Amino acid sequence: MFRIMKKKLLIIFTIFSVINALGANVDQLADSASYYYNEADYENALIFYDSIIASDYSSSELYLNTGNCYYKTGSLANAIYYYEKSLSIDPSNENTIHNLQIANTKIKSKTEELPVAFYKRWFSGLISIMSADAWAIFSVVLFVISIIMGGFYLFSRNLILRKTGFIVGISFLILTVFSVVISINIANKFTNSNYAIVFNEGLVKSSPNEESNNLFELTEGIKVEITDSLNSWYNIKLSDGKQGWIADENVKRI
After folding, report:
1. Distance CA 25, CA 57 (A)
2. pTM for the complete prediction?
3. N or C: which end of the chain has fewer CB within 10 A?
4. Are 232 and 188 in contact (CB under 8 A)?
């Protein structure tokens, strides 16, 4: 036991030394995290991953690896939380999607999802094709093409080229606006998430106080939507449509 504690203290001391000497060099911390991760020493890898996250650095892969470490160490809620964080940055990350699906099968009590309208499923599938940054780059490419086509329309003496430039230019301009909207939508999901993961099993109440009626119980790892808040309570909605109030200490916003 003493040797284990000594090892952990040495690692923590190393982290602070790296931060002080290198100005919280993320690459240095990431190298150390990767070393322990590859050695299957997930608890020590988490020390470095948590330090990177604490430095306000974020990426889909960082959250994926952090989630993997928590999953390997038996912390299901933390694993699901970081997988969701990973997808909020890059909805197309196939490794995260796969690992989240596996983690969700471990939840003790699952909720049945209500049918989703076709257009919502279509839009959700569309935005998951690429990350917010990729959509932003794509919109720039589309805009450049629309400008070029606009040039053909304005300056070409060939009637066919002018018509083609006008039609294609307008079409690509519309696609540019559409891709910008998608990019902003993904970015907003990351910065202003209304979703949370249940960390502590608890009873959902009919109103925001302990004396109110019990409606149902939530288990660790379930994803909920926060629809309202009052003092230290959240009004939450489950995927099956159930709603109620839960103490904010029992959930963690994504």
Report:
1. 11
2. 0.69
3. N
4. no
